[in-house]
Design goal:
This protein is α/β, with parallel strands linked by helices and about 280 residues long. Helix content is about 40%, strand content about 20%.
Length: about 280
């Protein structure tokens, strides 16, 4: 039998130290070289310490290392016949950049393997008691680029609401790993409303604000577009429910302490929007 080609393992770390799987730990301990990126998401300090406690030689990669340089540092290790792992926060295939790295490695003749873990998407639906069957497409609220504000998140939210679907809005990251706050995101949504004029960003809109999901100090607040809570440290996520079933309504009100009148008001508004009976 011929010698097996070197393998690049794309390893999801989950959202907290408790999410680390046995597979992930075994790979981190056994591969020749370990790389890690923290620019697509943010990890609690305890998770970084845990990884560094297992491997003191972890090499941290930037956006430029992975995207502009096509992961050359990783490919260099593989070309030497050494197995390597790229560690990422959450589930590894939530970011297109990670898939691109695996494609590059495979085209160069190396083996690739994905080690899955908990992602923000599955974790947040679970924490909020929202049905995954009713989740619409996900979007990211982005900072303006070259003076242009992308309307993608606004347009997707409008489409999801009119179909009664839940919307998860992830928040952008500036260069230098500065994460957008929920307050900044709401300000941008208001600007999108000024441009789009669809009337969906209004006082009837129920918003679930989430911070540090999966961390020991996670925070979840059910509020409105006009009452943005103080969530503390990022990362933050915004979730806007679509049409809620009775169990989802009960979960929001009894488990997450949402105001039931607020939830039902949102329900009536979504119903009108879906039926075409709502005028801005």
């Amino acid at each position: 039998m011929g010698k097996k080609n070197p393998t690049l393992y794309l390893v999801g770390l989950g959202l907290s130290p408790g999410n680390l799987t046995i597979d992930a730990l075994n790979i981190i301990r056994s591969v020749d070289k370990v790389f890690m990126e923290t620019y697509t998401s943010k990890a609690p300090g305890e998770l970084i310490k845990q990884i560094m406690g297992i491997r003191h030689d972890v090499v941290f990669l930037s956006r430029e290392d992975l995207e502009d340089r096509s992961g050359n540092a990783i490919m260099s290790e593989l070309s030497k016949g050494r197995n390597a792992a790229l560690l990422v926060i959450g589930d590894p295939m939530m970011a297109t950049a990670h898939a691109a790295i695996l494609v590059i490695a495979k085209r160069l003749g190396f083996e690739v393997k994905v080690i899955n873990s908990v992602s923000i998407v599955c974790a947040i639906l679970s924490q909020l008691g929202l049905s995954p069957y009713k989740l619409g497409p996900i979007a990211t609220i982005t900072y303006p680029r070259m003076g242009i504000l992308s309307m993608r998140a606004y347009e997707l939210l409008n489409d999801n609401l009119r179909r009664g679907l839940h919307t998860i809005l992830l928040l952008d990251i500036k260069d230098g790993n500065e994460f957008m706050s929920a307050g900044e995101a709401i300000d941008l949504l208001r600007k999108m409303e000024e441009n789009g004029k669809l009337g969906i960003i209004n006082n009837d809109l129920l918003v679930i604000y989430a911070a540090r999901i999966g961390w020991e100090n996670q925070s979840i607040v059910v509020s409105t577009i006009s009452n943005v809570p103080s969530l503390g440290e990022t990362p933050h996520t915004i979730i806007i429910p679509g049409l809620l079933n009775p169990v989802e309504i009960d979960y929001l009100t009894y488990v997450l302490n949402a105001d039931k009148d607020l939830v039902l008001k949102h329900q009536r508004w979504v119903n009108k929007l879906m039926n075409g009976n709502w005028q801005k």
